[in-house]
Amino acid sequence: MPFESTSTYKENKTINVLSLFSGCGGMDLGFEGGFSVYKKSISSKSGYIEKSIDENFVLLKDTAFKTVFANDILKEAFVAWSYHFKKHGYTPETYRQDSIVDLVKMHRKGFDVFPNNIDIVTGGFPCQDFSVAGKRVYMPKIVGKK
After folding, report:
1. Measured CA distances, 41 to 35, 44, 53 (Å)
2. 65 φ, ψ (degrees, to nearest 5)
3. I want to staple 113 with a disulfide (CB 3.0 to 4.6 A). Which of 20, 60, 70, 107 is the partner?
4. pLDDT of 36-79, one tens digit each?
């Protein structure tokens, strides 16, 4: 299958993104663009800047990426994602607050869980405080302390 460059996609097609372990949508937002950043954090020659907002911030251009499915099991992540992305025309139905294990089991049983025509699958790294793979802190019990 021949590789189509991103510039070809930008001109001709939306790039559909399936986002797993989405959290509050930081990676989704990064893929889609259209947000403000500190002016000194990006080269003015990069071609990604839509316009200057003020002396400290610029607005980045929208990209061809569109999140068509997002998921995370944390309610707080769903609330934050929905709050932000509704400003960009998304409905809460785009975000599934289910375990990926449960979603895959449903998919294997023939349920229509995931959208068709996905171009890219992204996945956020697990939070260290939440993941069993994360950093563990040993908290010894202090004798005599209550």
Report:
1. 13, 9, 14
2. -75, 140
3. 107
4. 999 999 998 889 999 999 999 999 999 999 999 999 998 999 99
Query: Which element (helix H / strand E) includes 11?
Result: helix 6-12
Q: Which residues are catalytic?
A: 127
DSSP state of 20: E
Which pTM does this prediction carry?
A: 0.74
- Residue type (1 letter), 22: S
Backbone torsion region of residue 23, taken as left when φ is above 0, otherwise alpha when ψ lies between -120 and 50, otherwise beta: left
Domain positions in the chain: 6-123
Q: Determine the Cα–Cα distance for residues 119 and 104; give it in Å rounded to an integer.
A: 18
CA distance 99 to 72: 7
3-state DSSP helix/strand/coil % of the chain, to nearest 5: 30, 20, 50
Q: Is 111 left (phi over 0), alpha (psi -120 to 50) or beta?
A: beta
- How far is it, in rounded angstroms, from Cα 107 to Cα 101? 10
